[in-house]
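Record filed here:
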Amino acid sequence: MTNGNGTPPEAGPPPQLNVLAQYTKDLSFENPNAPASLAPQPQQPQINIQINVGANNLAENEYEVALSIEGKAEAAGKLMFSFELVYAGVFRIVNVPKENLHPLVMIECPRLLFPFAREIIATSVRDGGFPPLMLDPVDFVSLYRQNMERQAAAQEAAQIKPS
């Protein structure tokens, strides 16, 4: 039995994910020790990167997802450069089951934003006088799982504490 167009009657409209807007929400690049930091260094700098994802429900079916990336490079105990970027997008998501909505917002949306954020960081670092910093791809599934485990542990700890 079908609903007239060849699909079973229980199959509703297909899920949709639309990008309504993308934008730099915050960008900071610091090169505090220039021009000394631009001189050839005896060793490769130590680079530290932190990535976080946040989301806000703006309206029914519309979400702002913000990808926050912070990084710094140090050599011989001196800061060479540091940056902070919050790159965000507004996404319209319809016909997605409620249980799939949170992972979709926190995994697929930042995955779509990441290449643009990566380019902004590479360009900022290059414009600061250094070789472009090409961030490795991010496993947003693992990042999501780590965050969910951390939240579950925090809730568990909160329940154990005597009041």
User: Anything to note?
Assistant: The chain has a mean pLDDT of 90. The domain at 16-39+52-133 is CATH 3.10.420.10 (Bacterial Protein-export protein SecB). The radius of gyration is 21 Å.
